[in-house]
Amino acid sequence: MGTETYTVTGMTCASCVRHVEKALAATPGVQSASVNLATATATVEGDASFEALAAQVEEAGYGLGRPAPDATVAGVQDDPAPARTRMIVALVLTAPMLLAMVPGLGLHLPGWLQAALSAPVVFGTGWGFFLRAGRQARHGQASMDTLIALGAGVAWLFALVEWWNGVHHLSFETAAALVAFLLTGKYLESRAKSKATDALKELLALAPPTALRLDADGSVAEVPVADLRPGDRVRVLPGHAVPADGRVTVGQAEVDESMLTGEPLPVPKGPGEGLVAGTVVHGSMLEMEIQAVGAQTQLARMAQLVAQAQGSKAPAQDLADRISAVFVPVILGLAILTLAGWWIASGSLASAWRPAVTLLVIACPCALGLATPVAVMVGLGAAARKGVLVRDAAALEALGQATDLAFDKTGTLTEGRPRLRRTLAVADLAEADLLGLAASLERDSEHPIARGLVAAHAGALKPVAAFRAHPGGGVSGEIEGRPWRLGSAAFLDVIFPEVDEDGIAVGLADATGLKGVFVLGDRLRGESAAVAGQLRRQGLRLHLFTGDRAEPAARMAAAVGIESISAGLRPEEKLNRIRDLQAQGAVVGFVGDGVNDAPALAQADCGIAMGSGAGEQGTGAAMAAAPLVLLRPGLEPILAARRLALRTHRVIRQNLGWAFGYNLVLVPLAAFGQLERFGGPMLAGVAMGLSSLTVVLNALRLRR
Ligand code: ADP
Ligand code: MG
Q1: Residue having the nearest C-alpha atom to atom 22 of ligand 1
Q2: 596 alpha carbon to ligand 1 midpoint, in Å?
Q3: Which of 16, 282, 448, 701 is the most buried (most CB within 10 A)?
Q4: Is 486 in the pocket of ligand 1 (CB under 6 A)?
Q5: CA of 464 to the centre of ligand 2 (A)
Q6: CA separation for the pair 373, 318 (Å, rounded)
C-alpha cells in the first residue's frame, strides 16, 4: 500500500473537489483520497491501479493525470496561455456590444450582429462551462459550471426570444459580458495562482543543469546533471552550485547553505563532509563523490514533501467543504424561487429572468473552494524559503493555535554536542579501556551522547556484535563475546557514584555490574533563553521533557526560564505527558531532535524536529519523524515558523470570511433584484471573478 499524488483536470470549484474525492474513494482498494483545488492534485492512499482510478474520475466528468516521473511539482505546469486567448477573444467580441450601450454614442447594432457576436463568446470561449456542466449533469451532479452554464445559457436564450418578439433593447450583451468577465477573472486567478508555486520552482531551480565530471582517465567533461550516477566524481568551481548530493573528496571551501536552511553563515567543508545539491561553494574549488542524484537528492525530496504538504488539507477547510456540498443545490433552488417570485409579482417572464441569472452567477462557490488551499500553498512555500519544512498543513495550523510547547533537552535546548569531561573507573578497568569500549558501542548510535563519546576516543574501534539502541536509555552490544550495556542509571538499573560536576552522566556495565561512568558537558544554546522568553510572552506554557536526571534538568530549566519540568522520561513517557496535556484541552507542540523523540513528535499536535543543517544524516530522520522540520540549526526558526503559522491562519480566516460574507450579502440582494440597476448578470460576472482573485491575492501576501 502506498500514497500517490496525481494531477486532476477539469476542476473549477469546491463542489468539483467533492465529486473527485467521492469518485476516488469509491474505487476498490482506496483507503482515503484527498483532493486539492489550488494545486489541482489528488492524494490517494491505498493500492488501486492508476487505470482504475482514472476510469472512476473520468466517469465523474474529470481527468486524472499520472504523477510526474521525477520530483517535478504538480500544479506548477498550469499553462495560462489558452486561458488568455479565450479571454481576449471574448473581450474583443463583447466590446462593440458594450460600447453600443453607452448613451450618447448613438451606436446601434442590429439584432443579427448582436447574436452573431455573442454566440461565439457564450458557446465558443465559454464552451468549457457547458461541457463540464453537461458531464456532471449526466451523473446527477452540479457545480459552479452548472450555475454559470445555466446563467449564461438562459441569458442568451432570453435575448433570442426578445429578438424574436421584436424588443428594441436586446440583452445579448448581458450573456456575452457575463462570460467575458468570468473568463477574465479565471485568467487573472490562474496567473496569481502560478505565483503561489514560485517558492517551489525556485527551490528546484537551485540545482545547476550541468556538472564537471572527472573521468577515470583524468579528463574533465561537462555533462548534464541527469547523466550523473552515484559514485561519479565531479568538480565544483567556486561560485557554482553543487549538482547532486555527495561527499567532499578533495579541497576545503566555505559552503553557502542558506537557500536550503536559511542559515546565513557559510559552513566550512572539507574531505569526508556532506554536500547537498543546490548549495553554493565559495572561496575555492572542491571535488566530490556523488551519492544521490535526481529525485533522491535532499533538494528534490524537500520539494516533493512541500508539494505534497501543499496538497494537504487544513482543518479550517472542513466547514467550507461541508457547506459547498449543499451550496449548489440550494442556489439552484433559490434561483427557481427568485424566477417564480418575480414572474408572479411582475407578471412577465421577461423581467423575472434577470434577477434569477444574477443570483446563479454571483453565488459561484469558486472563492469558497480556493480560500483555504491557496493560503496553505503560499504559506508553506514561504516557510520552505525560511528553512522551515512543513509536511502537513494541519500541523502548521496547530502551531498557530498551540497553548503549550514542550522541549526536549539534549540537542534541543542544548547544542547537542556533549563533550567528554571526565571518565570515572569504578572497577578493574583503566579509563582508556573504558572509553575504547564505550566509543565502540556507540559507533552506530545517532544520539548526541554517542557522538561525544566517539569523538573523545582517539584509538581504533572494536567490532560490536548484536548492537541495539534503546531509545531514551542507552545502547547494548557484545565486544569480544562479552555483553555490555551503556546508558543512564535507570537503564542500567544501578546507582552512579556521586559526581559533583554538572553534566550528563552515563555508565558502562557488563553482566557483573557497573564498570565506569562518563560525565559529558553540553552547552545551552546561546539563544535558548531569549527564544523561550519570547514564546512565553506570546502566552505559551513551556515545558521541559527530558530523559536526563532531575537535578541537571532543573538547573537548565531555571537558566532558560521554564517552570514545568518532567525528568527521567523514556520516549513513550514523553508521549504520555503530551497526551495528559491534550486531555486537559491543550494544543501541544513538541520540539525534539528527531532522532529518539519520534513517538512524542508524532503524538504532539505539532511535532517540530530540530534540523542539524543541510547534508547531515539527522535531517533525514527528522524529516521522517515530524510534520515540521527546522532545517536551520538553532531555536530561532521556531519563532519564524510560529509567526508564519499565525499569519497563514489569519489569511485563511480572512479568505473564508470574505467568501462566505460575499455570498451572504450578495445572494439576497440578487434575489430581491437589488443588483439589477448595477448591471445585474454582468455585475455578477465581475464580482464572481473578483472574489476568487481577491482570495488568491490575499494569500500571496504571505510571500512577503
Ligand atoms: P533527552 O530527553 O535529554 O534528549 P534522551 O531521551 O535522548 O534524552 O535520553 C535519555 C537518557 O538516556 C540520556 O540522558 C542518557 O543517559 C541515556 N541515553 C540515551 N541514548 C543513549 C546513548 N546512545 N548512549 C548513552 N546514553 C544514552
Ligand atoms: Mg534528545
Answers
A1: 474
A2: 9
A3: 16
A4: yes
A5: 24
A6: 11
Strand order in the sheet with 253-256: 267-269, 253-256, 280-282
What does the pLDDT read at residue 616?
47
Cell digits of residue 247: 561527499
Query: How far away, in angstroms, is 448 Cα from ligand 2 center?
Result: 8
Residues acting as catalytic residues:
408
**408 CB near ligand 1 (under 6 Å):** yes
- Count CA within 13 A, CB hemisphere, residue 116: 5
- Angle in degrees, 0-180, between the axes of helices 528-537 and 636-671, rounded to the nearest 10: 30
SS3 assignment, position 403: coil
3-state per-residue secondary structure call for 411-447:
HHHECCCCEEEEEEECCCCCHHHHHHHHHHHHCCCCC
| Dist. CA 596–CA 572, nearest whole Å | 10
Determine the distance separating the centroid of ligand 1 and the alpha carbon of 671, expressed in angstroms.
Answer: 68
Ligand nearest to the CA of 575: 1
**Structure confidence by residue, pLDDT tens digits, 616-651:** 444 555 566 688 888 777 888 899 999 999 999 999
Distance CA 587, CA 582 (A): 6
Tell me the residues surrounding ligand 2 (ion) with CB < 5 Å: 408, 410-411, 593
Are the C-beta atoms of residues 260 and 630 closer than 8 Å to each other? Answer: no
Handedness of CA 283, 287, 292, 294 (dihedral sign): positive
Nearest protein CA to atom 26 of ligand 1, as residue: 487
| Best CA proximity match to 359, nearest among 344, 378, 337 | 337
Phi-psi region of 104 (alpha: psi -120 to 50; beta: other; left: phi over 0): left
Whole-model pTM above 0.90? no
Under the banding of pLDDT at 50, 70 and 90, the label for residue 323 is confident
Residue minimizing CA distance to atom 8 of ligand 1: 547
Name which residue sits closest to atom 21 of ligand 1, judged by CA. 474
Residue 77 has a pLDDT of 47
- Dihedrals φ, ψ of 308, to 5°? -65, -40
